[in-house]
Design a protein that fits this description.
The structure is a single chain. This protein is an all-alpha fold and 275 residues long. It is built from 14 helices and two strands. The protein has one domain. It has a two-stranded antiparallel ribbon. Helix 5 crosses helix 10, helix 7 runs antiparallel to helix 9 and helix 9 crosses helix 10. The longest helix has 34 residues. The protein is globular. It starts with a helix and ends with a helix. The relative contact order is 0.13. It comes from Mangrovimonas spongiae. Keywords: Membrane, Transmembrane, Transmembrane helix.
């Protein structure tokens, strides 16, 4: 495994664009550090400091940081589809196979790299969140501090799932631009499935249940939006804002299944394709 990861990292390191995108994908999520220190002066009447609003308190901070950090995954997604596109355009895929790398090892090298970068990103976000929380949070009990670290697991699975989908699209279409464009087509398709399910079953609740099994929606559902929760902490009497934002094992399982499906399909495509 380490040999395959090292091989892939060497390829990425030699590509200037990939190095820049990887750097951006790791740095941008840390804008939460900047947000935590922002002070907004309203014409001298009062100063609003985001860190003092309670949104960086434990345990809610795990929810907030992982949710917003996950939106920056698109930058590394470009790296993933570029990994495949460059293999075809530069003929390195064929050369690797000639040099003794099996097709299975080729796919595994990509998948292991995806897991490696997802793990590093998760650790960095976890460390940043921990220290921001220690600085701003009014709660210092260990049980409260680590209560919702399950969002880190959801964040990790979400990254691996999304990048595995990008790996499959890269293998399917061989071109980075086409693969990324197909993500938008998939997004539209999932909404069409939603409306189709609504027409068949007649209720939005059932339609949402169907949509939650689809790739993009199942990944999104791992970390629900935290905005309503933030409002609820300030206005606990707002019963109408109550919603279920927890991380559940079956939601993680659905995405893990998709990870397996996309990795297997990537391997099958490579195995059947005439290089």
């Amino acid at each position: 495994m380490l040999r395959l990861i090292k091989l892939e990292l060497q390829k990425l390191w030699l590509n200037r664009t990939s190095k820049i995108l990887i750097f951006i994908s790791f740095i941008l999520p840390f804008t939460v550090l900047i947000l935590s220190s922002i002070k907004i002066n309203f014409f001298g009447f009062f100063t609003l400091e985001l860190g003092e609003l309670g949104i960086f308190n434990f345990p809610i901070i795990w929810h907030i940081t992982t949710f917003f950090a996950s939106y920056f995954k698109l930058f590394f997604a470009i790296v993933v589809v570029s990994m495949i596109g460059n293999e075809y355009s530069n003929k390195t895929l064929k050369q690797n196979l000639i040099d003794g790398l099996s097709k299975k090892e080729f796919i595994l090298s990509k998948f292991y790299t995806i897991v490696f970068f997802s793990l590093v990103a998760t650790i960095l976000i976890g460390v940043a969140t921990f220290f921001i929380g220690l600085y701003y949070s009014s709660y210092t009990e260990v049980s409260i501090i680590f209560r919702e670290t399950s969002f880190l697991l959801a964040y990790f699975v979400k990254l691996v799932g999304f990048f595995s989908l990008c790996l499959f699209l890269g293998m399917l279409l061989k071109r980075s631009a086409f693969a990324l464009a197909f993500l938008f087509i998939l997004y539209i398709f999932e909404w069409l499935v939603f409306w189709g399910a609504y027409e068949v079953f007649g209720t939005t609740e059932t339609a949402w249940k169907v949509k939650n099994f689809l790739p993009l929606e199942s990944m999104y559902k791992l970390i629900d939006q935290p905005m309503q929760r933030v409002v609820m902490t300030k206005y606990p009497d707002k019963i109408d804002l109550t919603y279920d934002y927890g991380v559940y094992w079956y939601e993680i399982l659905i995405v893990i299944v998709w990870i397996g499906v996309f990795t297997f399909l990537s391997y099958r495509l490579l195995k059947k394709r005439d290089l």
